[in-house]
Amino acid sequence: MNINIEKERKILVLDEVDVVVIGGGPSGLAAAVNAAEEGLTTVIIEKNGFFGGANVGGYSGSIGGLFNSTETGEPVQIVNGFAGRFVDLMESKNGIVRHERFGHTWLSPHDPFIWKETADELIEKSGAKTYFHTSYVDSIVENGEIKGIIIENKDGRSMIKGKLYIDCSGDGDVAHRSGGLSHFGKDGDIQSMTFTFRMTDVDWEKYGDFKLEDIWSKTSEASNTGEYFLPRKHPFIFRAPNKKQAIMNATSIVAKDGRTLYPTKTLDLTEAEFLGRKQVREYERFVQNYIPGFENAYLMDTASQIGIRQSRTIVCDYTLKNEDVVKAKKFDTAIVRSAWPIELHLGENGVKVINLDEDYYEIPFETLIPKNINNLLVAGRCISAEHEALASCRVVAQCFEEGAAAGLAALQIIKDNKTTRTLLVEKLRKKMIEKGSLL
Ligand SMILES: Cc1cc2nc3c(=O)[nH]c(=O)nc-3n(C[C@H](O)[C@H](O)[C@H](O)COP(=O)(O)OP(=O)(O)OC[C@H]3O[C@@H](n4cnc5c(N)ncnc54)[C@H](O)[C@@H]3O)c2cc1C
User: Fold this and answer.
1) What residues are in contact with ligand 1 under a 6 Å CB criterion?
2) Taking the CB of the first residue and of the last residue of the chain, which one, N or C, has fewer CB atoms within 10 A?
3) How high is the pLDDT of residue 260?
4) 12-183+310-434 is a CATH 3.50.50.60 domain
5) Is the pLDDT at 256 greater than 90, yes or no?
6) Does 360 score more than 80 pLDDT?
7) Domain residue ranges of the chain, discontinuous segments joined by +
8) CA of residue 396 to ligand 1 center, whole Å
């Protein structure tokens, strides 16, 4: 390998603030809004030109994790706080369907533009300073303490300094580059990526009460003709808030040679984007020919980037165990509840679902505190969780609440001179409850 040395140079310190949030997906948005609303000077950086992360850019399409799990009962909201507030705001703009049945629970399909608008409003009102089109590049770390982060954008390279850093990059980039330890799924096995798209001109009346199970048997039928390439036999189709549109969470990206594609490897991501676009056309043709109501429907748009379910999880003071999820474990230091199933996307091996009926588990604050680094919290899909546990806790309502917890934890760190490890979690939980969280 040919290695060159990058020239040493002076860089400008752009901001010195209380809280620096990296990544503007659901967890980052919640972290920044909550910190700024409490009067802390807050900066959020995001490599895209909008908030929403995988929920918008990856167009995962719905907010999951708000409700209980029950095969026959009614929906009961078990998560509120920032997640509930966001959904209420989206609903007031007709941007979300509050509950649509999904297996034994419910999800809330949304409109991606209204998601972005809602996020813009919340951030602007909170006073947090946003840098879009800005990538986190590296950290300056001394004795386990981040002294500043290096960012890169059209203006060049510069630095931002904070007292607390919150890694909401999904991939745990900050924790990883600051000396944190991480895992990749189960011994390197991670869930498959999906390239999501929307179709329009769907005749939902004709679709009637066709169910996901019916779509799955049609997928196998079409596949068996040998005329379609449909590697995922369990596609999900959801009604979008706009009545003619469908959210198509249908593809499954499998490398041509069958190897695992890693979202932290640029060439793997590139291959996934190429493969994803090809599959979109296959699934479009399939639904047009096999699914009632889709005869005249057509591709309206795709996610702006490949959808990533799993990459690094950062090793923290506590790791959420598969057993905690299955046995509905409760914690004194809980920051959010979840009854979302373990929903494992296994490429060509299908989607495995384990329901958590009539109870919920909780996620403790310690899953947000990376080992080896003192002034960093992680939130969202890179928190510390075992492979199957993550397949449940990665959904958006939980990411929102983890972000909110991290943003509000900053209050004690900055105002009461505490650290991520010495702050009083009971006080943090009280603050979250004051802001509407159900704990
Ligand atoms: C296909 C698919 C379908 C899904 N379906 C659902 C669903 O129906 N319901 C549900 O609730 N959840 C669903 N999910 C899961 C959910 O969307 C994600 O787990 C969730 O969005 C994770 O939120 P996050 O904030 O942790 O990270 P992300 O949403 O991944 O956001 C991370 C943000 O950080 C930014 N970023 C990353 N690295 C850098 C960097 N170095 N510098 C600057 N910015 C950076 C990214 O651009 C991104 O905006 C789905 C996921 C996928 C992939």
Assistant:
1) 22-28, 45-48, 53-55, 57-58, 60-65, 107, 135-136, 168-171, 173, 194, 196, 249, 307-309, 380-381, 394-396, 399
2) N
3) 87
4) yes
5) no
6) yes
7) 12-183+310-434, 197-302
8) 8
User: What residues have CB less than 8 Å from 389, skipping those under 6 apart?
Assistant: 320, 321, 322, 324, 325, 342
Let me know: does 325 contact 389? Beta carbons within 8 Å: yes
1, pLDDT greater than 80: no
24-77: per-residue pLDDT in tens?
A: 999 999 999 999 999 999 999 999 999 999 999 988 889 999 999 999 999 999
Task: Choose which residue among 90, 310, 395 to substitute to test ligand 1 binding: the one with the highest number of ligand atoms within 8 A of its C-beta.
Answer: 395
Q: Tell which atom from ligand 1 comes closest to the C-alpha of 136.
A: 42
Answer yes or no: pTM beyond 0.70: yes
pLDDT tens-place string over residues 6-21: 888 899 999 999 999 9
Mean pLDDT over residues 354-377, rounded? 96
How far is CA 105 from its chain centroid? 18
The protein residue with its alpha carbon nearest to ligand 1, atom 26, reads 380
Q: Rounded to the nearest whole angstrom, what is the distance from the C-alpha of residue 315 to the centroid of ligand 1?
A: 19
